[in-house]
Structure formats: C-alpha cells, structure tokens
Amino acid sequence: GQNIDQPTEMTATEGAIVQINCTYQTSGFNGLFWYQQHAGEAPTFLSYNVLDGLEEKGRFSSFLSRSKGYSYLLLKELQMKDSASYLCAGRRDNYGQNFVFGPGTRLSVLP
Amino acid sequence: GAGVSQSPSNKVTEKGKDVELRCDPISGHTALYWYRQSLGQGLEFLIYFQGNSAPDKSGLPSDRFSAERTGGSVSTLTIQRTQQEDSAVYLCASSLGPGRGGVNEQYFGPGTRLTVT
C-alpha cells in the first residue's frame, strides 16, 4: 500500500520552533500537502510541495525530499492557537490525483 | 463565496437503518472527496469523484456504502443497514480538480457526525 507515517503526538513550548516529520513510500505520489485540524473542526490547507526544497509561508514552512520519501512541517514562534492536529497527505501520481492522508500528529503547545 | 456545506451536521440512527449524508461542494470544483474520521484518528478515504469520470470507489469499506454525484455538483453518501462501527465523522471535500492549474488543495466541509446506537 501507499503508507504515510507521522508521529502520533508532539509537545512544544509557546514561542519555540517545532518540526513535524512525515515519511512516505517514494513511488506513487507527486505532491505532499499539509493540513491543520483543530479539535472538532474540518482540516484546512496549510502548505504543499511538489519539488524538492523548502516552501515558506509566514510562520509555517514545509520541506520535501522526493528521493528520501520525507517531508516536514516547520512551525516557528509557536502560539497557543497552533495546538491542533497536523495531517500530511500525499497526492497520488495519476491523472485523478486522489489523496492519501497520514494518521496526523497531535501538537500541544504549552505556555 | 460559500464553502463546502454538509448536512445534517449530526445524525443519530439505530443499528440496521439506512442513512443519507449530503455534500454541496464549492461551485466550479470538479473534484469531490468523501472521507471518514473516527475519534482521534486520521482521515480514511472513501470515494472520489472527478468530473464525468467513473468514481474511484476503492476506499468504500463494504457494499453497504455507496455514493453518487448528480449533475457534477451535489453528492450523497448512503450507508445501508448501519452498524455501530460506522459511527464516525464523515467529511466531504472539493477541489478545482487536476489540469486546472494551481495547487488543487482540498476545501473541507464541517462534516456530519454519525452515531449508530
């Protein structure tokens, strides 16, 4: 299958930097997406990578290495409101472009 | 503009009954996805519609589950003879679809929380 793996839970301190990793099978995907999901709410799009390298969007950055099947989401200057689950999703490498989601990483930001 | 809407927001049903869940995607979005999310878990893919192509039903867990999309817009997910293990939040998402340029990210609806008693 096309597995996507993420750590289940992470804890960080307000104002700090945290990196959430995502690993996946190298074949079958042509893009990596990150979504944020607050408890009881729907996921919202954060960032995506198609090519290798770092994409920066304000306090959030995402990195992709296609050869290693590895991505990470970097959150800087953590705020309490960043406490949420972060979902890594691979876009399948076919015309239909369906998505496979990882299990999500629950991030708790402590004061 | 309006986002993805789903109805009902909550549904409680008895085991063995049939349920219908509705999704209204963003206007102009050709791609529509259904996911299931159990408490504290990730998203489980159910079915994907893209334009007029045959849907990708590979994620449907059993033949009790079916979905249709009428006129390329509204979609209905039907669960027949519901079981307790069907209890979950059912999320619908839409996107512009492939070949339209851009990121093609998904926009999610608020979900329908289904409880089977």
Give the SSE layout.
The complex is a heterodimer of chains A (111) and B (117).
Chain A (H helix, E strand, L loop, with lengths): L3 E2 L3 E5 L4 E7 L4 E9 L6 E6 L3 E5 L2 E6 L4 E6 L8 E9 L6 E3 L3 E6 L1
Parallel strand pairs in A: 2-11
Antiparallel strand pairs in A: 1-3, 3-8, 4-5, 4-9, 6-7, 7-8, 9-10, 9-11
Chain B lengths: L4 E3 L2 E4 L5 E6 L6 E7 L6 E7 L14 E5 L5 E5 L8 E8 L11 E2 L3 E5 L1
Parallel strand pairs in B: 2-10
Antiparallel strand pairs in B: 1-3, 3-7, 4-5, 4-8, 6-7, 8-9, 8-10
Describe the structure.
Chain A is mostly beta strands and 111 residues long. Chain A contains no helices and eleven strands. Chain A has strands spanning 4-5, 9-13, 18-24, 29-37, 44-49, 53-57, 60-65, 70-75, 84-92, 99-101, 105-110. Chain A is globular and about 45 Å long. In chain B, the strands form two sheets. In chain B, strands 2, 4, 5, 8, 9 and 10 form a six-stranded mixed β-sheet that branches. The A-B interface holds A 33, 35, 41-45, 48, 87, 89, 91, 95-104, 106 and B 31, 33, 35, 40-45, 48, 50, 53, 56, 91, 97-99, 103-111.
